[in-house]
């Protein structure tokens, strides 16, 4: 390194004789030692898919909804909201905490329309940059105000969760979640981990439609988890990215949160409109923290804003306007609920079709987990090697953990997909 | 055990000094109140302005049924990135032609600065950034939180209300080799004091000879002089010498896209493969922060920049905003002269951009707020964009009263 620098600076001095005083260092970049970063495992899949020229290619990688023709969808309620917004609003800065109207409507979805916590102004809430931004705000807040704490993250989880808490410099622990043999929930081990964690630990919970496994606790299991959390004084942060998208009914999908609220927990919630309103690129979400009283909620909100200010100052207005336009208008809200149910139903239909196709192909393996899992993703149980074969031989793209985005499955490709899965799993 | 919040001990944070001004202004019930706090452009009627060309772009977007709202890639809208680099560096920039520039879409100026700072804190060997004294209040927080340590260099001379050029050269001259230097590309915030081109050349020579790393904050391109090219001269001078630099761009003011949070971070590198590796590392900073940037504002910008007729319309509207501000400067200066307000107020017309550093102290500012319902940041910075011909007399009266009152 020192030798390299010496050579570089000698050459630079030679160069500067001819170029005149004040020319820059001739040869070396400040960034010569910057390594190429690994590709993001999820977003890298779509990049590879786009680069593939095969006419048979199937993208069941990233979790973005597709209709039965494999096309992205803009909801009718969103198009209508945009028509109303365009030309009518100015683009002034939102407050640091975002759109008040949007946040109000968003809290109702999570906490309930008639939530006493909202009425009593006990919820500290700010608009965030979708689910990622909401989680990151919480992680930074946790680091600042509970610096001794760590975060318990389920195994497996959305890979970016690890990046978020790592960049916020909050140490991570894991808790058991997925049971590989049954392709279901490892409930006993999960409860053990909750019991054995030090009192007052911070846990990340997926409110519904766990990503990547699609495996959710039952209502009864949620109640037991809540009781155990109470006994240990743990903090629960719910990441809810799929409300409405899992069962088709937003109220039902918020059950886990409502159970915790009934049991008296002070929770945090990260909400996203990326999937359930199809607002992916608009980056609309919300982080909320339930507090003891209004005074505390005001304090917590002000501190969340202090984290947002040096990160992006204030959140983007357009997506928030779409959300508040839709949720603030009863007709548009009804339309939205109908469209969300439509998306969820299509996915449930594809789960059934994929399972039936595999069973009809005579697969010796059990595929009942396809219909037992819920939400956008199916944790197929395939190995990375099997996934690689799917990509190489069949031009089917998914993340190497075997996660299938059911939203990418259509009546047009489900047979092809089932056949490919059957081929790579039956022969191994 | 579920009865105590784990955040029970959290105390309420102080109001942001800049954004808090608008909060206080909104609470004031006086009909004469005047908001000269936040740097958001206002028309003569005191209204926010959405540019015509922006409305046109919006309509095009909304009418295009084929448009979807999918995730952008981590680095944002590709068209937008290319066009933004051209805008700041010049369409014929050799650095762009050599593929030595990586540009990533970020959340306005704040987001671009933060992403750039995070990258530097991780990959650059010098973790100190020198910022001018004074600077935008959010700058030190951005850099501190990104993991850089912040030092200042002399910039504003209260005696002349101009540039402390000697002090600047001394302080940058004393900086350790490799240190990062934050430079306001034009229309320095809060002072409105910019180096001349000759002074920029001297600054460039000093920075290059000491191997300091320039990090430009360009939030007012086109807004300062009315010319997009003139306002980018400082940045282009540094790029022309073949060296490396960072540049944070914002479209908040010059396209009036404030709340849409549109900006770009460009890193000019020595070689194309370096730029490519740098870009891959920028993605690792962005992904755990917000995954990918918001699509709407960037789509508007791209639509305007890529269409020569809309681009033209934009330059005309931009110049009109810059001209109105120049006119406000002139009117305020004349109003103070007419009142015989003690002191030299020529800095009002010498300073450039959205802000004037009046030279009023915090006590005088508090007086003006209390007695005249005029809101500004306590450092005496006023946003000229918040003035109109109708309100200039009120402001002049208030300044006169503040300066002449016996304490």
From TrEMBL, chain A:
Residues 56-421 form the Aminotransferase class I/classII large domain. Signal peptide: none annotated. It comes from the Eukaryota. Keywords: Aminotransferase, Pyridoxal phosphate, Transferase. Its EC number is 2.6.1.1. Its cofactor is pyridoxal 5'-phosphate. One of its GO terms (cellular component) is mitochondrion. PROSITE patterns: AA_TRANSFER_CLASS_1. GO terms for biological process: amino acid metabolic process. GO terms for molecular function: L-aspartate:2-oxoglutarate aminotransferase activity; pyridoxal phosphate binding. Pfam families: Aminotran_1_2. It catalyses: L-aspartate + 2-oxoglutarate = oxaloacetate + L-glutamate. Belongs to the class-I pyridoxal-phosphate-dependent aminotransferase family. Important for the metabolism of amino acids and Krebs-cycle related organic acids. In plants, it is involved in nitrogen metabolism and in aspects of carbon and energy metabolism. In eukaryotes there are cytoplasmic, mitochondrial and chloroplastic isozymes. Homodimer. NCBIfam families: PRK09257.1 (NF006719). This is Aspartate aminotransferase.
UniProtKB/TrEMBL annotation, chain B:
Its EC number is 2.6.1.1. GO terms for biological process: amino acid metabolic process. It catalyses: L-aspartate + 2-oxoglutarate = oxaloacetate + L-glutamate. InterPro entries: Aminotransferase_I/II_large (IPR004839), Asp_trans (IPR000796), NHTrfase_class1_PyrdxlP-BS (IPR004838), PyrdxlP-dep_Trfase (IPR015424), PyrdxlP-dep_Trfase_major (IPR015421), PyrdxlP-dep_Trfase_small (IPR015422). The keyword Ligase does not apply. Its cofactor is pyridoxal 5'-phosphate. GO terms for cellular component: mitochondrion. The keyword Coiled coil does not apply. It comes from the Eukaryota. CDD domains: AAT_like. One of its GO terms (molecular function) is pyridoxal phosphate binding. It is an enzyme of class 2 (transferase). Homodimer. Important for the metabolism of amino acids and Krebs-cycle related organic acids. In plants, it is involved in nitrogen metabolism and in aspects of carbon and energy metabolism. Belongs to the class-I pyridoxal-phosphate-dependent aminotransferase family. PANTHER family: ASPARTATE AMINOTRANSFERASE, ASPARTATE AMINOTRANSFERASE, MITOCHONDRIAL. This is Aspartate aminotransferase.
